[in-house]
Known about the structure:
Low-confidence stretches of chain B: 1-83
Structural class of chain A: alpha/beta
Distance between the termini of chain B: 65 Å
Shape of chain A: globular
Shape of chain B: globular
Order of helices and strands of chain B: HEEHEHHEHEHEHHEEEEHEHHE
Oligomer: heterodimer
Radius of gyration of chain A: 27 Å
Number of helices of chain B: 11
CATH topology of the domain at 31-55 and 72-298 and 382-417 in chain B: Rossmann fold
Number of strands of chain B: 12
Structural class of chain B: alpha/beta
Helix content of chain A: 25-40%
CATH superfamily of the domain at 31-55 and 72-298 and 382-417 in chain B: Thiamin diphosphate (ThDP)-binding fold, Pyr/PP domains
Number of helices of chain A: 20
Largest sheet of chain A: 7 strands, mixed
Strand order of the largest sheet of chain A: 11-10-12-13-15-14-23
Mean pLDDT of chain B: 85
Distance between the termini of chain A: 64 Å
Strand order of the largest sheet of chain B: 2-1-3-4-6-5-11-7
Radius of gyration of chain B: 23 Å
Amino acid sequence: MPQIDTPTQTIPDATVLFAGDSGDGMQLTGSQFTLAAAYAQNDLSTLPDFPAEIRAPAGTTYGVSAFQLHFGSVDVRTPGDDADLLVAMNPAAVEVHLDRVRRGGHVLINTDAFTERSFDLADLDADPREDGTLDDYDVIEVPLTTLTREALAEFDLDKAAKGRCKNMFALGLTLWRYARPVEPAIEWLSEKFADQPEIRKANVRALKKGLHYGETTEQFAARYEVEPASLDEGTYRAIRGAEALALGLITASRKSGLQLFYGSYPITPASDILHELSKHKNFDVATFQAEDEIAAAGSALGASFGGNLGVCATSGPGIALKTETIGLAVMTELPMVIVNMQRGGPSTGLPTKPEQGDLMQALYGRNGDAPLPVVAAASPGDCFRAAYDASRIATKYMTPVIVLADNYLSSGSEPWKIPDLDELPPFEVDFAEEPNHQNGEAAFLPYLRDDDGTRPWAKPGTLDLEHRVGGLEKEYGTGDVSYDPDNHQRMTRVRADKIDSVRQEIPPTEIYGADEGELLVVSWGSTRGAVRTAVDRARKDGLAVGSAHLRHLHPLPADLEGALDRFDRYLVPEMNDGQLVRVLRAEYLRDFQPLGKVQGQPFTANEIQGGIEETLASA
Amino acid sequence: MPDNSNSNDGTKKPDLPPGLQSSSGENGSEDDSGGDDTKKPAGPPGAKKPSGPPSSSSGESETQNAKKPAMPPGFSGDGGPGADDGTLSRSDFQSDQDVRWCPGCGDYAILSTVQRLLPDLGVPKENFVFISGIGCSGRFPYYMDTYGMHSIHGRPPAIATGLKTSRPELDVWIVTGDGDALSIGGNHLIHVLRRNVDMQMLLFNNEIYGLTKGQYSPTSEQGKVTKSTPHGSLDRPFNPAAVALGADGAFVARSMDRDTQHMKRMMRRAHEHEGASFLEIYQNCHIFNDGAFAEFTDKDTQPERALFLEDGEPMTFDEGKKGLRLDGLSLETIDLENGRWSEDDCAVHEESNREKAHLLARIFGGSELPRPFGVIYREERPCYEDLVTEQLEAVTEERGEGDLEALLHDADTWTIG
């Protein structure tokens, strides 16, 4: 076939959504497109969205797995409000995800999967191509399965195996459409199937055939070019939150000289951290897959007692089980890092969907007055610093620290500027080496405190510093068991004051957008991208709107109150039914307005923009 | 938490077979030093320091332990500070805390036995770590002048696993009870045993919840009348040794608080064993479950009801008058005095024979066979922490020590500016 010279337009950004059956390889297709966009130096943000079932029945709406990707030459902060192109491998994918496509956007469908049988499976009364469903969209019909099988005719593979390569055909075609490089995917396939040459060749062939199909078909009115983004100077890579978190922990271990001990029980979506860390044992990283969530936390605390960096990660239900151990870490004043990759709750909830529903649990979810520092990551790459800072605070203040991230950050990716290791805050740990008290004779008092209110960390194996810790209340200084009423009041206050002193670690709060004015959006965690985009739009509309995005949720930054003074109103968007908003109201006695979204999906910038406008309109 | 209650209400004594009601006899074991007479309290409440197990002021000899040379006087760890040459003594392991167990509690004997044993083990004092859970046994670390953690209910094996795996050179001991290990902590118990983390677990089994004032425990006999079961408990009890064997425990042993010599030998054996050592100690709670083990510990009944196992020796009891014989796949009692059977007919104990160990461990509950004490099973197999360390070293050797800069850049990168 002759090559068609499809005209190329340069656009600032684009959003592509791949959707199909769980078995169609959509996550893989999406992540390979991500690599290509990163390779082309675009800024980007991704949103994998997959069902909790591993292989839900084929063709059903609840079995649809999707991967949304927003890439651009401009600042990209969210996975995109509306998709420009939906690649739908079957009718169910159209049914589930069409509302994410902008009106007039493109829908590329695999016509081979549009059969009566598949309409039944997707619970559709009619072919969506014929019942008006797709009228407002530009539909591109491609028989992906047939074309893939034809391309692989000469391969010694069965029909099903050939059909499975259709995602590579779709990837090739999509890469062509956005003029993204195909090399990263070929390289990846070569590595992935190094031991299965026939499969490797078939996938590469399908990928290339997809590309050629784009070059020769007349179905596309245009192809698009997205130029490299003008990011800050530095060296970048694409990174997912789980990877960044693991790298942050390894970096903390290296900088501090502490062995990293990671206790974990498999749970979605935190398992990716375990997978990542377990690859890096030559960094003196011990990973322990425990018998349950409680043992995972217990082993981490045991390792911390031994003078190591004890870390565990889990998600909501797992945090519930770890609660008692975290309380023990508060009482014994031992360092520990607990990562919560939040997912929809309560209970088992929405295991593969993001939510910010565990803030209250992090802040208050223990028996007794048991404050601890809570740090939240704002983007996939930011998980690196969140993990690093949490580790540093845990050991400096001898306290458990909770890191809040969520499923969106864990599996989403973005370009990440690789940090200069020398520019990270220093991370030094001083272990107690000798008695710290004279009482006729030299003694070691495990609960004597320094100026920050922190007790010494004495490792078992250190001569003359034998001491006991435990869950019973401790006498101030000596650490002996004490039931004295005044001592308990004092120790409760001492523990709280110690955590309050973590405030000195918090950098000045950055106010994005207007520095003073009508409305301050106060947010935390993974909503940062959507909030900033919404603030930009509001300011373009002439509104004096700023944003304070909180990295530290306990203690809160000392300068936040001053920032609040400069604004008239406050809006608190959260992926929950109103948690930070209650904390802020209690802390600052002001009229913070909630904006909750609890749908297992991150906020779009549009939604937050709407909240801003509504709040100001109600003034 | 008022854990020192002397209230003696609520719990009926177990119905013992006729002739076993008395619990007032002398300790019938070979222990000539620490005979815990249950009639006497183990020490006044609030005693500043326990003087060891009740009436254990006399010197201790360890003539029983044939495998160890007798220690010279003063070296067996009884009283007195250590010699100037840095050797340790029992008092080096006594903390300055008041021991708050009830007078007469079997825990005193266990504490003092541990404090007497540790100086002999050749381990630097600072390397000992005791980790306990919740319950009366949970207070144990506070009374030891070693590193220790009084942790939370049932979780000591998890905490110990993290500690030992990351610090293999430490000498880790777990102190737990029947509720702590077998009820709330049952999951961690079986997993620490299957993994074979090198540590000693002392399970104080008193078949009752003491610290919560007398509810039945997972080892209480069925039908037990307690505060929580006024009409009798319905649960079938756990058999701790069988649970440990079933979890593939590599060292399973049983002893009793009333025989400090045997207990010390068993603790030493547990310590010598490289791996997870499970030592069940029958421990009398004389407030809520007095005499629970009297049939095995009292002088009058012990000969017929207890069998002390020795590796490679025929299984005999009742001063050699009776023995256990393998009848097919079952054990039966034989009379060695009626001329029909001799010691040669008795089953020979082999510590590393898993099948025999299972037969011995199953002697439980209402069995007429004598209850075995000693090392029921022992097997050499790799310790978990060594496997972890070896894997870290092997990966490091294969790939070289991790280069952090290289790791951060280990992806497709691009540079701007």
